[in-house]
Amino acid sequence: MEVVLSSRRLISDGSVVYAEALWDHVTMDDQELGFKAGDVIEVVDATNKEWWWGRIMDSEGWFPASFVRLRVNQDEPMEEYLAHLEEAQAGEEDQAALGLLLGPGLPCKEQMRTNVINEIMSTERDYIKHLKDICEGYIKQCRKRTDMFTEEQLRTIFGNIEEIYRFQRKFLKGLEKKFNKEQPHLSEIGCCFLEHQTDFQIYSEYCNNHPNACVQLSKLMKVNKYVFFFEACRLLQKMIDISLDGFLLTPVQKICKYPLQLAELLKYTNPQHRDYKDVEAALNAMKNVARLINERKRRLENIDKIAQWQSSIEDWEGEDVLSRSSDLIFSGELTKLSQPQAKSQQRMFFLFDHQMVYCKKDLLRRDMLYYKGRVDMDHMEVMDVEDGKEKDFNISVKNALKLRSLAGDEVHLLCAKKPEQKQRWLRAFADERRQVQHDRETGFSLTEVQKKQAMLNVSSNEGCFVSSSAVTRPYYDFLLRQKHPSLPTALPQQQVFMLAEPKRKTSTFWHNIGRLTPFKK
């Protein structure tokens, strides 16, 4: 408290106050100030005891006061201080002095590992409390009011957060068993992440549903009784002053933070440490989880576009593409020959997961396509055909490949114009099989509700395509409305969940819909 008061006095007197970072502050938030251990921060505002406002070069933002220590001599010129710090880091004798900045009794790297381990444990416990508050403070109360909420509405608003809560409690128990209270730097927690790496995939469903939750909440919050009800739930549970949509954003942020925390942990784990290999493997595993969530997000964003493409095809027959497929792998023009006539036909081919659709171009309107058939890729084998005489069709071919059904009763000969086009198609067919296998392993599939909604989006707009970015626009609006919340003075920094305006750049979480360029005519 004396440090905070002294810093306040110095700032109020117009003095420039500097603090030195004790360890790294990694942030994904625009209004937080990120820095590395040893960085020097100019403290601009220290009125809040938990979070200060500071500046490094041209960057400004909030940072946790507990991550820094005020410089003992504020009058020391910046250049001299930085030079002294570099000397301390370079010399073995001064390394011990630098270690004192980080806490007594441990070498520098071990103290840093202790800090990271403690942060992981602390944030995990806070996160469990956060999930409990949502499940018991909101969902439990909502279920009592059948006059206000249907079970379907609650599923849309809260997604599978109860399932996440059950899993995270189990995960925390595993962490607690591996946590060394007396010597945290000796804790071996990497195996906990590895043991549960497939369980973390339940976040995919939550992240995919979150935009729908924001849309549903936005509708309800236009009615005063829902505003008052949700506020009463928050007060009854004694939760911090953040709106429900803010609380529901936290699991999305949490799953993205694990790779950052593990990267920090790996940095301060010696290769000789018993936990090193597990932490390294855990970091890769959690990165893969994040990539999987991004990929599933992209796939779900594509389905409106696939439905719109199908609606533009004339003379469509049979089931919808979305009944079996959710991803366009490749498309292009090929010459098709089928038995028994071996008649040559120019067709446009669209390779999806599980199936390939082929269409005929209109002679006058080249942008208009007529449905001509499809091939079930689950029961086909793809064969490379050498240039020259093809024995099944008894004709000479060039740049050809063949699709043969596993039962042998269906054969298609496809010819590209150039050798490189043929190779690209062969790679595409291999990609399609890998995609199908990956979906089976990860359990990815579209729900009937998602398929129906995509087709409804097309029909309700009478051919005017509504992209998924337009459908989820309220989600962007929600993010853009969020500002840095007032910081509660009685809470540790881990309990403050930031909801700042996102950076004005394309995120991998949203932009991948642009991959479907083959649909452009």
TrEMBL record:
Any one GO molecular function term: guanyl-nucleotide exchange factor activity
Main localisation: cytoplasm
PROSITE patterns documented for this protein: DH_1, DH_2, PH_DOMAIN, SH3
Residue stretches making up the PH domain: 327-434
SMART domains xrefs: PH (SM00233), RhoGEF (SM00325), SH3 (SM00326)
Entry keyword Glycosyltransferase: no
Localization of this protein: Cytoplasm
Pfam families for this protein: RhoGEF (PF00621), SH3_1 (PF00018), SOS1_NGEF_PH (PF22697)
InterPro entries: DBL_dom_sf, DH_dom, GDS_CDC24_CS, PH-like_dom_sf, PH_domain, SH3-like_dom_sf, SH3_domain, SOS1_NGEF_PH
Keyword set, alphabetical order: Cytoplasm, Guanine-nucleotide releasing factor, SH3 domain
Chain ranges of the SH3 domain: 14-73
DH domain location: 112-296
GO biological process, one term: intracellular signal transduction
Coiled-coil stretches: none
GO cellular component, one term: cytoplasm
PANTHER family per record: RHO GUANINE NUCLEOTIDE EXCHANGE FACTOR 4, RHO GUANINE NUCLEOTIDE EXCHANGE FACTOR 4 ISOFORM X1
UniProt protein name: Rho guanine nucleotide exchange factor 4
Phylogenetic classification of the source organism: Eukaryota, Metazoa, Chordata, Craniata, Vertebrata
